[in-house]
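Protocol step 6 of 9: fold each sequence in the batch and record its structure tokens directly after the sequence line. For illustration, a two-sequence batch is reproduced in full.

Sequence one:
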Amino acid sequence: MIGLDANVLVRYITQDDPEQSRHATALIETLDEQAPGFVSVIALAELSWVLARAYKVTSVDIATVIRKLLEAKELVVQDADGVRRALAFATTGAEFSDALISELGTLAGCSHTVTFDRRALKLPGTRAVP
């Protein structure tokens, strides 16, 4: 298993840099169930942020990308259950990274997650900093 950085995923998904995209595609196409790629939750959060900010991808489309990564047999996604739960909130308008932070906290046994982010406050288990 090899770890995949967010920039490798971005190049593979966007195909926006001919040289790096070619290398990312070649690498990802060598992965399989016996020798998978590992996608950390940090890489997913960074991927969602880059797609939203730099490429103006909608939250619904970002959720679709992440869902496809979860379904890929040649990838192992860290904390896949928390990622799936976060996706449910991301499709309702929450940013995926905010939903992921909240859901991973819940899975870790946190009573709640505190934030200054007003949009994130709409997520269950999230409260404003007192």
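Sequence two, same batch, same settings:
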Amino acid sequence: MKKIIVLVAVFGFAAAWQGNAAEAKEVYARDCVKCHGEDGKGQTKMGQKVGVKDFTDAKVQADLKDETMAKSIKEGLKDSDGKVKMKAYGETVTDEEIKGLVKMVRAFKK
């Protein structure tokens, strides 16, 4: 009986993780791709306009902290003049989706 419970828990966790990854992918496609691009390089018209970072660059990845990325997604980013560079998504994206987005950004590293 214990083995069955463990197996159910493992499969449940795996299904939940797959769901979170799929949700993050949908959020990225909906909210992030227009600036960061499908490949994470930021070579879109809007990405170049606001100067987004190339998430495939190992140095950029090394300089990014997961907590900083999560905060940026939640609260947005402003330039030194206070102009919005990236809007805040804290009202429309869950904490689990944010964790998934951070994992997606990490996966762009080459």
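Proceed to step 7 once all outputs are recorded. Observation for sequence two: Residues 6-19 have pLDDT under 50 and may be disordered.
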